[in-house]
Amino acid sequence: MKIGLLGHGVVGSGVTAITDSCAVKRVRRLEVSRILVKDEAELTDPRCTLNVEEILQDPEIEIVAECMGGLEPAHTFVSRALEAGKHVVTSNKKMFAHFCPELCALAAENGVTIRYEAAVGGGIPWMANLTRVKRLEPVQSFRGIFNGTTNYILTRMEETGMDFAECLNEAQSLGYAEKNPTDDIEGYDAKYKAALTAMKTFGAEPDLDAVITYGISTVSSKDLAWAKENGRSLKLIAEGKDDGDSISLWVMPVFLSKNDIFANVRENFNAAESDSKTLGKAVYIGQGAGSLPTAHAVVQDLLDIYVNQDAVPEAMKKRTVYNGNISARFYIRTGKPELFDAVTEQKLAEDTLLTKEMPLSEADRMIKESGDAALFAAMVAGE
Ligand code: HSE
Questions:
Q1: First-to-last CA distance in the chain?
Q2: Is 193 an active-site residue?
Q3: Which residue in 193, 200, 235, 241 is the catalytic one?
Q4: pLDDT tens-digit profile of 291-324?
Q5: Does residue 288's CB lie within 6 angstroms of at least one atom of ligand 1?
Q6: Please, are residues 233 and 151 in contact by the beta-carbon 8 Å criterion?
Q7: In terms of CATH architecture, what is 2-122+292-317?
Q8: What pLDDT digit, counting tens, does each position of 74-114 carry?
């Protein structure tokens, strides 16, 4: 089965590394015949081309694997591949979180499928397991550590005392971070993955702008010192819950108790947990970023298409995101602590406080109204 690969960066080069050398007979039958690269410097392989038409108009290519990242031209190329009757596999969470319902409908219209295992949780078989759980019962809620870069940074800061910028540099050099790491450190990458998980688990199409999203760009070693003194671990968590009429969906750093299994998920590893009636909580842990683990998930999707396990794209309906039911205490470090006097339960330092238990949506409103761009906010889970 011939495959056209769009992009030969961190993930795309991992795909050819696996498909070109894998000894498994079935994988050997997956032939990457053309690779779209972005400039002449990348024309390192005879299969490389700068012209996407050589892939989109090649009738022998049955699957297009999109590993370019970014919204455009990835969205246009994927739409055109589906319209041309080609299956699509994508690792592009940003593009797919924005266009998933539209692209699933386009796939269904053209009698092909679109798979996106690598878009969430890197190498973890998260979508595959959610599909299995959903065969028996609805998934009521999920949570995840969905960003490898921030997990790597927080782990390194906690374990070595290095500063944020130095740890980010390391994550970039290991190929974990996006080209522009803003999406990682501001929590947007985790938001896209949480939205895709909500689409899969709840059949919900959420308004991405309504997902409360905080990242770790303002974290300091003081915050990790507080975590250590209090037997906690700081993680960037995404959570979603089906509340019936609405869904809750948010991304925020959380000080977890050390007893929480997620507290021990280190470096570039991701974790994903689903909760459903008879299975209860099921947790999956694996490398959430990096060339080969992510490429592994792409190749698994290619194989699923090859052996004809095409998932029928699922219908989704628009659902309101409402985070007023989520209640917690919040750790806030800010140059304007007086703005939080009415909700302060404990002062931790001149510039740091713990709030009393309050709705996440209310904490979000107060933080935004403070206008303090250097503010660091995190949820404190449990006692
Ligand atoms: N930049 C992403 C991360 C890559 O750090 O998780 C994998 O999606």
A1: 55
A2: yes
A3: 193
A4: 999 999 999 999 999 998 666 667 788 999 999 8
A5: yes
A6: no
A7: 3-Layer(aba) Sandwich (3.40)
A8: 999 999 999 999 999 999 999 999 999 999 999 999 999 99
